[in-house]
Amino acid sequence: MRWKNSLAVPIVALLLVVSVGMLLIGYVVNDRLFYSALEEREKDKGNSIQFATRSIIDDEVRRLSTISKVLNADAELSTGVTHLQHTKGDFGPLESAMDRLFAEINTQVFIVTNPEGVVLYRANEPRKRGDRLRVWGFEEAAAGAYIVSASEGPNGWGIRALSPIRAGTRVVGMLVLGTRIDKELAYRIAHETGARISFANLNDILADSSPPDSKPRYDPSIIREVLLQSYPIFRMDMDEYKAVLYTPLKIVDETFCLIIETDMGVVRGMLLRNRLKLAKTGALILAGVLLLGITVTALLVRPLKKLERDALEVVREFTGKELPPGVGGNEMDTLAAANHRMVEAIRNHISAREAAETALRHSEAQLRQAQKIETVGQLAGGIAHDFNNLLTVINGYSDVLLHRLGETDPSRREVGEIRKAGERAAALTRQLLAFSRKQVMEAKSVDLNEIVSGMCSMVRRLIGENIQLSTALEPELKTIIADPGQVEQVVLNLSVNARDAMPSGGTITISTANVDFAAPEDRDGYTVPAGRYARIGFADTGCGMDEETKARMFEPFFTTKERGKGTGLGLASVYGIVKQNDGHIRAHSAPGRGTSFEVYFPAREEDPDPSTGKIAAPASPLPGGAGETILLVEDEEAVRRMMAEGLQRDGYSVLAAGNAPEAISLLERHPGPIGMLLTDLMLPGMNGMELARRLMPSHPGMKVLFISGYTEEEVGKFVRKEHGTAFLQKPVTPSVVSRKVREVLDAP
Amino acid sequence: MIRIKSVAFLLTAGILFGPPSAGGATTLTIPGTGACETVLKSVATLYQQSHPPARVVVPPSVHSEGGIRQVIDGKAVLARVSRPLTPEEAAKGLSLRPFARDAVVFAVGADVTTHSLTRRQLAEIFSGKIGTWEQLNGGNGPIRVLYRQTGDSNLTRLQAAFEEFRDLPFSPEGKALYYDHEMVAMLRKYRNSIGFLTLSTIKESGAANTILSVDGVAPTKENIVAGRYPVLTEYALVYRTGALPPEAGEFIDFLFSVEGRKALSGHGLVPVGK
Fold it and tell me: Which terminus of chain B is less hemmed in, N or C, by CB atoms within 10 Å?
């Protein structure tokens, strides 16, 4: 099996897909957790910086307030300002005093003005002296209040603490201390917090801690939202690894947006390490899953393959077909296919067995029926044999008596009746013999069409005027090997049977056909073996038969006719004849639907011999004997005497013996030639055939005529084969014997 | 692609959505403008007293636009505003329900002696052209200009009413303020200041600042009702059309009830009919 057809592929693929899916989910969750943790961390950091910034700003405001409050009451300052006003423009002493003070307190802005706001002293900017200061809160401070404000001045945004300088209760000047909200402040906070710090309002970034060449770019809409909605906004930019917190920052009476930008560069390494770790774990898990998939498949595939092999083995056992395993897909597919084939094979096997059992039961039934008929036949044959002997005596002596009695003898009529009854009995016995297949058969090449055609006029007379006879004969009908006389008897019996089935008239159809069965033909409960046949059919339109009648119709003495009208031997003798000629017979019938018989005789394969194809013509009367010596061997004394007398009367010289040794002894004592050995076949001790064989070598011209009421088939064959031998079936009359003797003696 | 992770969170004391109150009553939060914040708070208190266990929260100002945004985002069902809806906002399925009228007034610091100015004078003061009160005989010293950021509803009303204010550049020495309460505080702090805000705000604050007549018309109730006072503003509630929950509907009904209208009048507002 190719690997791509293996079950391993879908299993491993499924496991891999599931694992990859779970890993992806794990990756995403991990990423989210990482970002969320990072976000929390950066937000916390931003908030800490925000608080630190607020603290720095508050400290600054507090510092300014404190210093200005302290200086507010400074006598030197008050004196200086008052002095200046009195000296009208001599700044010298004030300036030097202020310079000293400024150096001590170190504020960014240090201004002293007169009560109208005219600058008297400005630290680091002496040239601006005389300018008018326009800072927010000046008027309020000039009125005596202490004011801190945040506002935009000429030098930018700043926090200013204004405190009036008093001389007594009179305000003589103003001290303005301040811190600018500028780059320096931003840088200072940035330096302390490690973040990038910017101050913005709605219009602009006012101050930031970045180098001059890198002015930060922040989203003005976020700044606006923060300022107007008063809440902080946090943004994280993972492309640049920076976090930005925008938060509102109130400095005295001005609200700014404080922007705190922190660098997350350090996170980049963490993130990479985290991803690498995840990738390593993922690879390990995938490898594990791969291994697991292969192991699971191996464990799964082994029993599957065994199941498949077993199934194919069953298929092989039942069908004989050797199928290769592993064809047509993965192990599951091939197992399913093998299982399907196995089920099919078993099903077919069961069907075949059932069919065979049915056929067997049928055959057994047929066999039982055949055996029954055979048994009855043997019984009938045995009885007929004895009857023949008795009838030979009865008929023979009847003949003798009739011969002796004069035409006017009063006993002649009675003897005549005995003779007639004897003949009827003889005819009955022949029928019995036909059924029991004990008739002597003289097989020839026979054309069924010729027989049917030749018998048509006789059959018409037989069936009467109210029954129509039609024939359908196959012109190219094959010939058969059969005894033509027996075939004629079949035609007659079946015709009579058909006639009796149609008391109110109808049609008999006799048909012939060539039939070729490639396989045994099973129909209507009869089986015809495979082979070529010439078929003769008899179909009537009569009353038909019920099942019981059909089952018993070939039994002898079984008849549906009223008592005394039928012998019950018609179909039985047909059956016997057909079987004796290696044929088959079957009937198809149903009550009210008529009956049809089909008789199959094995077709003769070679061309028929014209010489044997003719039916022997009936024998013509022959003259009596010319003193030829006949050696008569017959164990029944009455028969022997009757035959001896008849032969002697007809001009033959008779040597009569009761058994073979007696015959041999007689012959040895007889000096003259022996024309014929006339012997019963069944003799006590040495039988007739053995006797003939014993005598024939020493008497080459001697003809042999066997006579018997009971003839085995082998005897029949022997009779046909041996030259110079003939056969006569009992019961016989003296005249029949004389005629046959003459015929045999005259034969070449 | 720039991936920005953003989180907005609140530092302000109250979260806009308070937790549900005990008893299962839903808390109705009405974010928005600072202009009518005090008035609505007062009406809400009255409502809660007469409708227990109802709870109505009027959080600190996030301006009209902040309130509207929360309704659009589904974070609030009602917002308080002091300006009309923009076409974009109206297109998002919002409804505007005006409930009271107020005047945008000019107020001055404690040291300013003038009581009335013309709109021209006002424009020149706010642009910085007139820099001292002496120039107007209104006091002494520099004029401290307090104004509002661009987009503020009071400024917008002012610009709508006075052509002189439409493209006015505010004095560079002036202070831009973002909230009404800042305006009140700054007017108190700076004695030479001048600023503008709603009449109800300054009245509610208890500040004693002088409120100026404009072109000789004082923002009295009569002048407001009569429409003589030139700068008026209207307060309204905004909600998503067809999505007004029962508790919001009940509050609106109360606002338009006799009691509600009385409360509005008591705060110097002119109630608008239902």
Answer: N
Q: Are B94 and B71 in contact (CB under 8 A)?
A: yes
Quote the CA–CA distance of B115 and B212 in Å, as a whole number. 5
Report how far residue A552's alpha carbon sits from residue B160's, in angstroms, rounded to the nearest whole number.
Answer: 129
Cβ pair A231:B150 closer than 8 A: no
Nearest beta carbon to residue A236 from set B4, B62, B192: B4
CB A121 within 8 A of CB A177: no
> What percentage of chain B exceeds 70 in pLDDT?
91
Q: At what angle do helices A734-746 and A637-649 cross, to 10 degrees?
A: 60
Nearest beta carbon to residue B5 from set A39, A152, A230: A39
Could you give phi then psi for residue A177, rounded to 5 degrees?
-110, 145
Q: For A32-93, give the secondary structure using H, E and C.
A: HHHHHHHHHHHHHHHHHHHHHHHHHHHHHHHHHHHHHHHHHCCHHHHHHHHHHHHHCCCCHH
Output the CA angle A168-A169-A171, nearest 5 degrees. 100
- Inter-chain residue contact B8 with A233, CB threshold 8 Å: yes
Note whether A304 and A332 are within 8 A (CB): yes
Token duo for residue A599:
């008789």
Q: Which fold has domain A73-180?
A: Beta-Lactamase (3.30.450)
Taking the domains of chain A in order of start, what are their residue ranges? 73-180, 334-439, 443-602, 629-746
Asked if A140 and B178 come within 8 Å (Cβ–Cβ), the reply is: no
pLDDT, tens only, B218-255: 999 889 888 899 999 999 999 999 888 888 999 999 99
Contact flag B142-A134 (C-beta cutoff 8 Å): yes
Cβ proximity of A549 and A455 under 8 Å: no
Return the residue in A41, A134, A140, A218 with the most chain B beta carbons within 10 A, the one to mutate for interface testing: A140
Report the SS3 class of residue B11. coil
Q: Which CATH class is domain A629-746?
A: alpha beta
Phi and psi of A413, rounded to 5°? -60, -45
Global pTM? Answer: 0.56
Cα–Cα distance for residue pair B146/B196, rounded to 1 Å:
8
